[in-house]
Amino acid sequence: MKAAAALIMHTVAVVTAKNCGWERQGTANIECVEYYTAENCDVFKKAGEFVPTCDGNCFQYDSFSSLMSGGDGTYGVDCQVFSDSNCQNSIGDTWNEVIGNLCKHFPGEKSMKCFYRC
Description:
4-stranded antiparallel beta sheet, mainly beta, about 120 residues
């Protein structure tokens, strides 16, 4: 009985990131973060995308090489990038990208926290 109680106490909630589901170039009212396995945000090497929130969740993806983020045309998206998978060792920041057409590369990227409209 003690083992079952210990198992229940150590259960962790998993947060799934919502996909953007759109082409964000020039699109208003849609915020998005896209991440790539190539350093230059090559569309053929896009690994995934997600909609950022203000919750400060640590997004983990082993060895992404570049990212592109953008807000809704009024409010920006800011991503902090980390070299470890737990969002502890900061290696860069995308700053507050309102439109988001700039590709950012930080060598050793493994996790990030992205914020929108905080």
